[in-house]
Design a protein that fits this description.
single chain, 163 residues, mainly beta, Jelly Rolls, 10-stranded antiparallel beta sheet, two-stranded antiparallel ribbon, 2 helices, 12 strands
C-alpha cells in the first residue's frame, strides 16, 4: 500500500489537492524482467492522469498491441531505449525521448535485446488502472481466471488488437 499523500492549503478545502508520492512509498509490481512502480491512479489526481514508472530489462516484453479509446498515453524514456510499434511503424525512443500516443492509435512496446528501457508512463485523462496492473501477474501465475480481463476494455480503457 502506498504512503502517498495529498498536499493542500487547509483554507482551500473545496479545491482539488495536490498529490505527492515518493519512489520509496510507491507500490512495486515485479514481473518477468520488469518492475512497475504504481505512482498515481486517476482517483489520486482528480481524474487528471495516471502515472507509472516501468523498467524493462534488456529483451523484456512490455505490452502487446492495444489502444486506449478515451485517453492519450505518454512515454518519457528515463534511461535506455524503448522499442515501440506505433500505428504499424517501428520506432526506437532513446533516453530523453518522448512519445505521445493519442486515443485510438494502436501501439505496443518493450525493451530491445541490448538495452534496458526505464520509462515514465502517463495516461491523461486518467483511468484507475492499478487493479489491472495487479491482476496481470496473478493471471500469468495461474492465481486468477483470465476471464477477469473481460472487463478490461471498458473498465481500464485497454483494448487489445491482433498483432
Amino acid at each position: 500500500m502506498s504512503n502517498a499523500s495529498a498536499v493542500s492549503d487547509p483554507d482551500a478545502s473545496s479545491q482539488p489537492k495536490a498529490y505527492l508520492v515518493q519512489e520509496r512509498d510507491a507500490e512495486i509490481i515485479a514481473g518477468n524482467g520488469s518492475r512497475l512502480w504504481l505512482l498515481a491512479d486517476a482517483s489520486d489526481c482528480c481524474g487528471a492522469l495516471g502515472a507509472n514508472r516501468l523498467r524493462l530489462e534488456a529483451g523484456a516484453a512490455g505490452a502487446k498491441p492495444h489502444y486506449h479509446a478515451r485517453s492519450s498515453e505518454a512515454f518519457y524514456v528515463l534511461d535506455g531505449v524503448l522499442r515501440m510499434v506505433v500505428d504499424g511503424e517501428a520506432v526506437s525512443v532513446e533516453r530523453g525521448g518522448l512519445v505521445v500516443i493519442p486515443p485510438g492509435v494502436v501501439h505496443s512496446f518493450g525493451a530491445g535485446p541490448d538495452a534496458v528501457a526505464d520509462v515514465l508512463v502517463t495516461l491523461t485523462p486518467g483511468v484507475d488502472r492499478f487493479d489491472y496492473f495487479r491482476l496481470l501477474p496473478k493471471i500469468l501465475r495461474g492465481e486468477a481466471d483470465p476471464r477477469a480481463l473481460d472487463e478490461a476494455p471498458q473498465r481500464y480503457d485497454v483494448h487489445f488488437v491482433d498483432a
